Amino acid sequence: MVTNVTNFGRSGLADWLMQRVTAVIMLAYTVFLLGFLLTNGDLDFVTWKTLFQGTTMRIFSLLALLSIAAHAWIGMWTVATDYIKCAKLRVIYHLVVVIALFAYVVWGVQVLWGA
């Protein structure tokens, strides 16, 4: 069993479950957006802005954003532990992934909740 502080759920089962839960959240978000796009044929900026001004949509979008980050981290961690055998390279890789995911989450929060 791998007991590394860089994994997300501290066990393979927890990581597997987190992957599935985040995938369902991302699927629900995608289905909702596709449904919205298909039912609003004459979509304009005002309609789009009105959709994302609602607190419910902002929370749903934030949940989807955090799900993407968690899903990506688990997947990238798994790939790194399986294929990058050199510990130093794996640490550098993990650091780059963490910085990128952190930047994307901060940027997404700023877009969702900014002015």
Automatic annotation (TrEMBL):
Gene3D superfamilies: Fumarate reductase/succinate dehydrogenase, transmembrane subunit. It comes from the Bacteria. It is a multi-pass membrane protein. It is found in: Cell inner membrane. Its cofactor is heme. Pfam families: Sdh_cyt (PF01127). InterPro entries: SQR/QFR_C/D, Succ_DH_anchor, SuccDH_FuR_B_TM-su. This is Succinate dehydrogenase hydrophobic membrane anchor subunit. It comes from Marinospirillum insulare. The lineage of its organism: Bacteria, Pseudomonadati, Pseudomonadota, Gammaproteobacteria, Oceanospirillales.
